[in-house]
Amino acid sequence: MRKRAMRRMRGAGAGILALGWLAAGGAAAQEAPAQEGHAWAASVPAGVIAVGPPQDVDLTVSTGPEGEPVSETTEIALKTGGYYRLNFVCTDAADDTAGFRFESPGLLSNAHLRVVSVSDIEIHMQGLGFHALECDEPGRARFSFHPMRKGEYEFVVKNQEDPPAVLRGVFKVE
User: Fold this and answer.
1) H or E segment to which residue 132 belongs
2) Alpha-carbon gap, residue 162 to 99, rounded angstroms
3) Could you read off the pLDDT of 4-42 as tens digits, one per residue?
């Protein structure tokens, strides 16, 4: 069936049509394995990373007694291919000199980024990346993503001092 369908696709758009047909599953569409706890996951077609809302993961940062970033969260467990939304919450950043900066180049380069949002503004990512999130006043910035590779990826949260005080943590992707 596949060879016959490919022979029928002639002309300038044949390659595009063939890729679309194969991406849609061709004659032998397979189902992805169900994800635990989600009834909708049993019907997810092959090639789709995840369906449904992301799982929220909070990283709430406040100012310690010496001006350093403080958080109760220093280890975040994730699963390869899961769908997550990291909420970077700054509870008491006062201005440009007392804000915080989140960085995790290892995770960001080993994940498929979906949406970055600040307040009610959403930036839909398609093959794009970013380096850091920074807050200069109380608020929340968040991004949704799919971890694509297992590993341990450090994250840091820095204040605006020179040299900066640093909070270190780790994303553990299984």
Assistant:
1) strand 132-135
2) 13
3) 333 333 333 333 223 233 233 333 333 333 445 545 455
Nearest CA among 37, 3, 30, 36 for reference residue 18: 3
What does the pLDDT average to over 147-171? Answer: 95
In the chain, ranges of CATH 2.60.40.420 domains? 55-173
- If we measure between CA atoms, which residue out of 116, 160, 115 comes closest to residue 136? 160
The pTM for the full model equals: 0.69
- At residue 26, the pLDDT reads 36
Segment 33-75, tens digit of pLDDT: 344 554 545 555 666 666 789 999 999 999 999 889 999 999 9
| pLDDT at site 47 | 60
DSSP strand pairing (166-173 vs 151-159): antiparallel
Q: Are the CB atoms for 55 and 85 separated by under 8 Å?
A: yes
**Answer CATH for 55-173 from 3.30.300.230, 2.30.180.10, 2.20.28.10, 2.60.40.420:** 2.60.40.420
Q: Which among 94, 81, 89 is positioned nearest to 55, based on CA atoms?
A: 81
Please give the order of strands across the beta sheet that includes 75-78. 75-78, 166-173, 151-159, 100-103, 132-135
What is the Cα–Cα distance from 15 to 67, expressed in whole angstroms?
Answer: 58
